[in-house]
Each structure stands twice: as C-alpha cells, then as structure tokens.
C-alpha cells in the first residue's frame, strides 16, 4: 500500500541548487550539537586535531561537521534528491529502511510528481539486512540519494 509523505522545509531557491559551495552545507542541521556525547566523538577525531592547529576550535568543528560528517548533504537531498518534497513511498516496507524482520531485502519506490511539469519520477531504493551485514543504495525513505554498507563483527567463542 502506498504511503504519502508530506514535508515542511525552508524554501530552497534555484540559485542555491546551482552553487557548489551550498552543496556541501547542511540546511537541515547547520550547526553541530553541543552535548557531551558529540564532544567526546570530536575529541577523538584526527581531523579536528589537525584543523585546530590552523584555526580556532569552533571553526574546526564547523568545517568537520559540514565537510566530513555531512559531505554533500544538500546535494544528495535537494539537488539530485527529492527531500523536502511531497513524495509517495511504495514497496515491501515503505516506512522502514530495512526489512523489519531483521533478515532479507526491502525494495521500494520513492515517487515524486513534479508540480510544474507533467513528469513523475520513480526513484529506486533497495536494502538488505542479515546477521553479518547490512546495506542499502538508492533514494531512501526521506528522498535523499544515499548508500551504506556495514559489517557486523563476529564474536568468536
């Protein structure tokens, strides 16, 4: 059964989308959080340690947040993605990124109907999960083009 998803998002102008510098920013979460867990994470980052030699700590954290952690966030979501737009999700488990049983594939289509042109985009997404690995590729349930591959460490014994 298709699921319609409506979004509210700040207005993104056409000149943002053609600006390569804007592609690297994060319009959804522009500033890094100020909490102990995040502070411990960045304290271990070798990138932050190097950047702190050439600039103030706050600037180093901002650069790390926008260029390392969220590389091309705006590009994958708002230039080639359909994040922030009204979409319809249709597939096996449209509300889940992975198969909720914990094993197997999840395939879905993210469907976007252009408001100003008679065009409908069908954007694919596929994911797989097993006890040893999980991966996905395509336009995810939020409209971002993304990919991930993670392996689970085997505990011997």
Global structural class: alpha+beta
Helix content: 25-40%
- List the total number of helices: 6
Poorly predicted spans: none
Span from first to last CA? 44 Å
Structural domain tally: 2
* Mean pLDDT metric: 84
Main sheet? 6 strands, antiparallel
Number of strands: 6
Strand order in the sheet with the most strands: 1-2-3-4-5-6
What is the N-to-C succession of helices and strands? EHHHHHHEEEEE
Report the principal-axis shape: flat
SS strand fraction? 25-35%
Instruction: Specify Rg, calculated over alpha carbons.
Output: 19 Å
Task: Give the topology.
Blueprint (H helix, E strand, L loop, with lengths): L2 E3 L8 H4 L2 H4 L12 H9 L1 H9 L2 H13 L3 H7 L7 E5 L12 E10 L6 E10 L3 E7 L5 E7 L6
Antiparallel strand pairs: 1-2, 2-3, 3-4, 4-5, 5-6
């Amino acid at each position: 059964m298709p699921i319609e998803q409506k979004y509210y998002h700040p207005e993104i102008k056409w000149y943002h989308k053609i600006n390569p510098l804007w592609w690297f920013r994060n319009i959804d979460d522009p500033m890094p959080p100020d909490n102990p867990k995040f502070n411990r994470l960045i304290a271990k980052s070798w990138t932050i340690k190097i950047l702190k030699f050439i600039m103030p700590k706050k600037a180093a954290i901002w650069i790390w947040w926008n260029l390392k952690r969220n590389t091309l966030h705006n590009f994958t979501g708002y230039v080639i993605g359909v994040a922030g737009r009204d979409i319809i999700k249709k597939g096996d488990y449209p509300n889940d990124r992975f198969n909720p049983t914990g094993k197997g594939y999840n395939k879905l289509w993210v469907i976007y109907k252009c408001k100003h042109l008679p065009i409908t985009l069908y954007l694919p997404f596929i994911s797989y999960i097993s006890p040893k690995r999980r991966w996905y590729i395509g336009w995810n349930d939020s409209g971002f083009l993304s990919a991930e591959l993670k392996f689970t460490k085997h505990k011997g014994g």
